[in-house]
Amino acid sequence: MRARCAFALLYLSVALSARAQDGGAAGAFVRLSWGARALALGDALVAVPWGVVSGVHNPALLPWSPGQIAGAFAALLPLDRQLMGVFFQAPLRPSAGMMASLVQAGVEGIDGRDGSGYHTEWLGVREQRLYFGFGYRAGPRAAFGVGFSFSRNQLHASIPAPSTLGVDAGLLLEAAPNWYLGVSVADLLARYSWDTANLYGSEGNTLTDRFPLRLRLGSAWRPGGNWMIATALEARLYRAQRQWVEFVVQEGTPVLISRQQGEWVRTLRWSGGIEYTWPEGLIARAGLQAEPGGWRPAAGFGLHRSLGALWIETAYAAGWDVPIGLLSHRIEVAVRF
Fold first, then answer.
1. Which of 54, 149, 174, 330 falls 20 to 30 Å from 243 in CA-CA distance?
2. How many CB atoms lie within 10 A of CB 139?
3. Which residues of the chain have pLDDT under 50?
4. Domain span at residue 35?
């Protein structure tokens, strides 16, 4: 039964990778919104150098980090999915910055059943990513950055957990006062290799599942001291192995045959967000993302306060989860010291 469940999970992951919705492709959790601000602004953070900067969207933003900041976020997602993470970022004077983060995602309580429909065991899937980013300000108006990620997926006890190294790179340019342009590429070289020999013996094989290559272009503008407007365009490209199983009749006997086909998958999505900060420290945010499955509106708020030598910001956001059609939530806390 364990072999059947593992095969079903692996087959589902690979088969979905050829769809316009790339949620079934490798590393799907890294393409979710990490944190409340990211969700509320539609993930349009590739060129936003104000506030707690997002090195995972563009490592070139890290020299603009306002100080040593430690933070954490947690998500409440539909379908019993889990997502949580911690991060640390700091400027490296006089003209650089760094970031480290650890994120875990997964699904627990999957009801494993046999062919007759009887419960056999509870299954779970877990995935982690460790990220390090570095950015350097090459001049008063330009910066570049690189990031390195280590991802690991625990799908089934009988399948060795695959791991992979990914590379990110980004640029940031101040085109005019309070107007920034950014470009980044994410998950270069990242791929999982699944080895099912321990599970299926001589019938097992090795399957390579690539992470989508993500190219982001974005801009951010502060028309006034309290307003911020951000937009981004993201293209995703990857080579997927679509695998399926079908029954055929050979000499009057039904036979189960596994088939696979490689194909390129391309998707495009636009996002935008707006943020307003009151002098009292209250922040309102709203965003919209257009993706192949539909529109994903989101909104949230934040509040920052000083507590002695510490600066603390708490934030919450809710967004429409496409294509599930339910709300997802983020809570985030960041402390500058």
1. 149
2. 9
3. 1-20
4. 2-336
